[in-house]
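To: structure subgroup
Subject: Chain for Friday's discussion

All,

I'm putting the inputs and outputs inline so they're searchable in the archive.
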Amino acid sequence: MTAPETLDRSLALSASEEPRFWWHRLPRSNYVPPIYANLTDQEWQLLQDWFQETTRQNLIGECVVPIMSVLHGLIMGSEIQRIVQLGTHAGYSALLLGFSLRQMHAQNGLFSFEIDEFLYRFARAWLERAGLNSVVKVELRSSLDPASPQLARDYLGGAPELIFLDSPHKHKQPLDEIDAWYPVLAPGGLIVLHDTSEFAASFDVTQQGGVHRALREWREAHPEIEVISLNRKVLAMETPQMIYQDFCGAGLIQKPV
């Protein structure tokens, strides 16, 4: 039987006025999502501490429950144990992905890139505190460095089965990353992209269309490849009848077997 504290966990976040916890204030979100419910008490406490510290240091910028739930389902439902992450930021998704991989008894399961030295050191410190050193490696390097794909393959012990693209949102960066990493992906493997909606295109400081435009252009250049873009045309946070509850959108590219 689930302990009472497990049932309560993230429900308290619905009382927070921080914008980062918007999902927890949705009308039907009065439950603990599996990405949190599956954590041990120690892992959940560490994540709470991480939330407090990133609030204190104004390092908010992590992805949210819907996209992490997509990743959680793909990884744990399909035994995916070789993952590359393009963009670590403060470490939220690296921690949660690491916790999932540890539950799957995976070693050397996630290789993550970060170009900001402060964020790199911050994320590494929290991963070490979480005891994930044998599961996750963060590399202070551009994902577009020619040496990056081989470094990832060497650490993972083979071609990545899933690549999570959540790096800087300038239009050219994600487009170049898809081009660079798609050939490295294992046959049948997946690239999952965050921030693919029209709303999220505003995150591109160069005003060139961000990930939204990058995914559209890549799909047009590769019509033979399976590409899905969830909430592609969502323009605002308050969009009614949004079934996939992330106004930033998500993309999925699958490499043919």
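Points worth raising on Friday:
The chain has a mean pLDDT of 93.
The chain is about 35% helix and 15% strand.

D.
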